Amino acid sequence: MRVLRATLCLLLASPALTAAPAPSAGPALGPAAREQLRAESLNYAQQLLSVASQISLAYVRPVSRADLLHAGLSGLFEEGRQPAPPGLRAELHRRPDDTGLIEFLIQTRERLGACDELREPKALLVSCQAMMKLLDPYCAVVTEEGRKDQPWGDQPVGIGLELEDNAGVGPLRIRKVHPGGPAQKAGLLPGDVLTHIDTRPIKRGTTSAQAAGLLHRGGLVASVGLAPAPDPSDALDGRPLRPVRLTVSRPGRKPWNVALEFQTGRPESVLGVVRSDNNSWDFFLDRTNKIAHVRIAGLNRGVADDLREVLERHEEALRGLILDLRWCPGGFLDEALGIAGLFLGDVVLATVTSRNEKPHEYHNLQPKRFLDLPVVVLVNGQTSGGAELIAAALQDHKRAAVAGQRTRGKTSVQTTLFANLPGATIRLTSGEFIRPGDKEPQPRPAHRRSEWRVWPSPDLEYRVSADFDRRLREGWEQQTLRPGTSTQALPLDDPASDPQREVARRGVLEAMKKAANRRKETQKVQRQKAAKTGERKRTE
To answer: Which of 238, 260, 282 is the last residue of a domain?
Structure first.
């Protein structure tokens, strides 16, 4: 989803901020410690007030700055294992001006003393996390660890794997393998354990962060004793970095060695049915009827262009399409609009509303469009956010039928706020999108928010249990990560193993039949017009 950036500014300190600190909890502090605590408290107060002000202005629904500050301070006292002062909320509401608020925040922070749990920047992080509890579930403080599962921007795939966080204890286990990357092509899977890097055993106590620095940057950082670092000039003069050589362990299989070249492209987000020998995707599910099955893993940067390229490459042979958005968690708004626009004319794709701005209509700006291609959109309960926008736009404009199960019902649009939090940002709900078929361009009332869904057509609805859905998702993950050269048989090699897709295929066949009848009717009308024109000319 499109990321809107809001830079948080520091509030300038006034002479009133030099007032003597309030008594702090714990043992008495010496002059130097008191001075340090005062400086930390000042910085905390400035930053906390700035964050609360930004949230109060930008959040999709009204929320007072005083209530946000109360939540942040309450979280701070909870982390410091002390009860919050009585009358805290009333005191915050009584001080509307920034100068008075900052002085009060300084004194309140100083009451907690110089405990290690609240050293900078921990105090601000704790308070920001506490403020999120006042907002909707999609608002959060996103740390570096949490960012791993966020939509990809323009980051290169590197060697195509991520490690589980082991905090220096236990093995270096693979958490995620990126489709289309070197690790996937080499047959690595989540759960595999790295035992050696460049033939050297991984030392006990090596953290996943240390190892990741070496793996993803080609040894241009400290090699943490695992391997000699390559010459940095290799990267500076454009020469490729040397491959990373790994020894990998997996239960039931002897350890084996792989060499992974660095890759600069993005991870795959447009996936097909089965991989060819060269690891590219074969998108055709039904070759007899020329029906393709295209899966969208996430609305990452570039996915709309990638889908357009796939459709252009097969345009001559393609007669029908299943656009599979199951388990698609959403992502960038402009990518969702770009995908929907590939199949629609000059229409409004969605309207985004916010609290302080007029509703903004997003019109179709796609230069290339596939308006005559019969399409069925396949969704389920994990289809979320921007993926729902795509399904809703095609459904409301009567461009495509929807198959599967009802979607999640997430209509919110998130903004990223950059606070002074090392390695973390704040994800804030700043608006909501309205589907084209909605009459009123306002956000739905809070009590009706959960009613929003994209529902499949009655004849194409196919519900599955949570357990079957889980097994189906795992099966498609296996299908995605299996290298093209592999001869391993998987359950989804049998088309009947995915009944939801089979229902969608029947829907595409029906859409193709209707399209063929429309073409015949159009041709018939054209012939009749031509015959009348010819007859009129002969009469003249």
So the answer is: 260
